[in-house]
């Protein structure tokens, strides 16, 4: 009877220990010749919230111990100084690592539970992420369609052979193996789907012949909806580029107001389950930060309806509120200032026209350097539906007025005393010169348009004018 009670007790203790092991991984280690006094492990606990959480521990005599919250298998980044290596973690892992800071990747070695998985990752990084032979940039991207495909096939073959050879001697978990395969397969897929756009960027031309239809047949053979893919950050990057590719194929440019909305819709049509949610979450974040306010609001409403979780709602609501004041389409702060003759000047006076708004000062060296280019731009577009409104921020109003009149500066010239003014804060000005492009309804087109020194500044403005006129017809 006592033996039975003891067995029950031991079983309970094992179960309790297992429960406490859940939810964390322990990493200990020793650093020789440390590059800094800390070790950081960066994780992304929720794949639908594209934001890192950093776990930091201080070195003591070169040694450290860290507990990382882990509720399911994740791939994190271990950072020390400027060095970084991926780390695979599962609940209950107890890893010990040793490395020389001066030779980080060459010397890092893992022991303990999870060592096989992480030694593979370190070896994979050394071989396939560091050796130039396997890199797309700077030379392989210049290869022809056929040659580039051959390069990717050769690299993928080596990667698969390397995985099989390693795991034959060093067993890894089934979940890890699926992650490793996803890294290989979607590394291939991502480099192929971005081939044309990256090649155009490197060769600085958009006149390259598009790859053949055969080049993209690989897209039809990908398993995009397997939940095992979600451990792979390469897969997450691929999802973004996948939506971008089909959006471009639909004739939508990144500069179009509906770009992110179209990408979001395409991701919803072509993907399912968690892959769909993750892709749309990343596109939504980009739209909140860079997209048009109207379309971002529509996407946010749809995402909330289809992904009901308090932490998701809290994250995207906070991000949206932080960015909405200067989002494309949000109303530019109005003002009422005086020109050199004392007449009133308001931003709202120019509704119905595109406004190129600049903030400058006679005491700002860069402002005065760019002024001739701004004047040339003003002259070039003087007969177009655009108004150049320039707000001087001098402390000395008379000096500003003499500069405007003495140099016969074109455009609308208005005065605002100093950088401490409320309008400066409302436009979130940190430095000058600062430029804004505002649409015919008084909403932001861009909070960082091309500067007057950029040769494409005039073409950008003309493009927006043409789009505005086309939308009226």
TrEMBL record:
<feature type="domain" description="Thioredoxin">
    <location>
        <begin position="326"/>
        <end position="470"/>
    </location>
</feature>
<dbReference type="InterPro" id="IPR036249">
    <property type="entry name" value="Thioredoxin-like_sf"/>
</dbReference>
<dbReference type="Pfam" id="PF08534">
    <property type="entry name" value="Redoxin"/>
</dbReference>
<feature type="signal peptide">
    <location>
        <begin position="1"/>
        <end position="21"/>
    </location>
</feature>
<keyword id="KW-1015">Disulfide bond</keyword>
<dbReference type="InterPro" id="IPR050553">
    <property type="entry name" value="Thioredoxin_ResA/DsbE_sf"/>
</dbReference>
<protein>
    <submittedName>
        <fullName>AhpC/TSA family protein</fullName>
    </submittedName>
</protein>
<dbReference type="InterPro" id="IPR013766">
    <property type="entry name" value="Thioredoxin_domain"/>
</dbReference>
<keyword id="KW-0676">Redox-active center</keyword>
<keyword id="KW-0732">Signal</keyword>
<dbReference type="InterPro" id="IPR013740">
    <property type="entry name" value="Redoxin"/>
</dbReference>
<keyword id="KW-0201">Cytochrome c-type biogenesis</keyword>
